[in-house]
Amino acid sequence: MIDMQSARDRLGTQKAQALQRLADLTRDFEAVVAASRDTNADDEHDPEGATIAFERSQIEALARQAEHHLEEIDAALKRLDAGTYGTCEVCGNPISAARLEARPTARVCIVCAASART
User: Fold this and answer.
1) C-alpha angle 7/12/16, rounded to 5°?
2) Is residue 56 part of a domain?
């Protein structure tokens, strides 16, 4: 049986962590952009330019992942409010408490998740 308050607490903790991570990444991105403004880096011809472009790209990718995780958390919270949290979106069976504890944003049961990978 799923303890809905415990699930809400886990999701709340994950949301706070994801928001902090996104804020940190935003600061990191702004620092890289500011540092690149202070140099005369030409991404094409300056060896440092390629590094700066790579760092910007890496931070942008990590920020997109954090934003996606926030979207998944918000969707899980909406499922909690709607009373559908813990129900597989594919087969309609319950998602195991162990899976939800390990992955509170899970939308599908382990059987459906495994069959989707094959």
Assistant:
1) 150
2) yes
Please tell me the distance from the alpha carbon of residue 114 to that of residue 111, in angstroms, as a whole number. Answer: 5
SS (H, E, C) 8-65: HHHHHHHHHHHHHHHHHHHHHHHHHHHHHHCCCCCCCCCHHHHHHHHHHHHHHHHHHH
Does residue 69 fall inside a structural domain? Answer: yes
CA 53 from chain centre, in angstroms, equals: 23
Query: What's the predicted TM-score (pTM) here?
Result: 0.82
Within-domain flag for 37: yes
For the segment 48-80, what is each residue's pLDDT rounded down to a tens digit? Answer: 567 888 899 999 999 999 999 999 999 999 999
54 lies in some domain: yes
Q: Which domain holds residue 76?
A: 4-83
Rounded to whole angstroms, the Cα distance separating 68 from 88 reads 20
Q: How far apart are CA 84 and CA 51, in angstroms?
A: 46
